[in-house]
């Protein structure tokens, strides 16, 4: 924990007091373990990161706060900003997104995860009535399944090795399966588990000619992909999806501001509070986050709470 001076807001800026920040467990764990390859140091920079990879860096991109100083008509507004874990920051209004009415700060920190899920559905192109499975029951996988399950007549199954994810899946409106019981002949598969075994499960679940959308980012890890056996004869498609880029078919009409606004609107459902597994006081972050980063604690969406 470090104290640094924060100057007065410059012209056009507002001062924001943080209410909550979301811990991006997958990405921040890779950074914590120094598993970001040097080739990705530039692409992996957070929008408002301080420092340079590999360390030390001030990282994070899911900050919800309240405007305390700025244009009078915006003072008191709750906003989402792509800022790290810190108590205050200054930002132009163009870099802040006012929360929709009824969206609480703690749930709003899931906006970046919801953007990733939304982007994946754009890449996967699900259709009405599809049988869809998502391999990997982290927050991004659960949100991807949540969105897919709201397409009329779809049948969506979450596949994970952790039986505890069953209750979350049921509450969010889709089915659950352990890998050994995974359905096959799926019309579309999303993979989010960030492990080779999960990717193998995803390929096995896909029906002939179906697509597997790879959403995992492995950092510096080498991944074994089973592209032998019947991969070619079944004409499977392995497609990448990455939230840093809007799909080419939408780039002429969509920008990141529009996408983030949609992601925030999709978080209105109070059932999504089931994803917030830990509420950690900000001052306890140095002692409690390492257990989450190292996988010693089962966590979905840890949220840092600022007094």
Molecular structure report:
- The protein has 307 residues and is of the alpha/beta class.
- The chain folds into two domains: 13-110 and 276-305, Quinone Oxidoreductase, Chain A, domain 1 (Alpha-Beta Complex), CATH 3.90.180.10; 115-248, Rossmann fold (3-Layer(aba) Sandwich).
- 24% of the residues lie in helices and 24% in strands.
- It has helices at residues 25-32, 105-108, 111-124, 139-148, 165-172, 196-205, 256-265, 285-293; strands at residues 13-22, 50-51, 57-58, 63-69, 78-81, 88-92, 96-98, 131-135, 155-159, 175-177, 186-191, 206-214, 237-240, 278-281, 302-305.
- The strands form three sheets. Strands 1, 4, 5, 6, 7, 14 and 15 form a seven-stranded mixed β-sheet that branches. The chain has a six-stranded parallel β-sheet with strand order 10-9-8-11-12-13, sandwiched between helices.
- A hairpin with a 5-residue loop joins strand 2 and strand 3 (57-58).
- Helix 3 packs across helix 4 (139-148) and helix 3 packs across helix 7 (256-265).
- The protein is globular, with a radius of gyration of 20 Å.
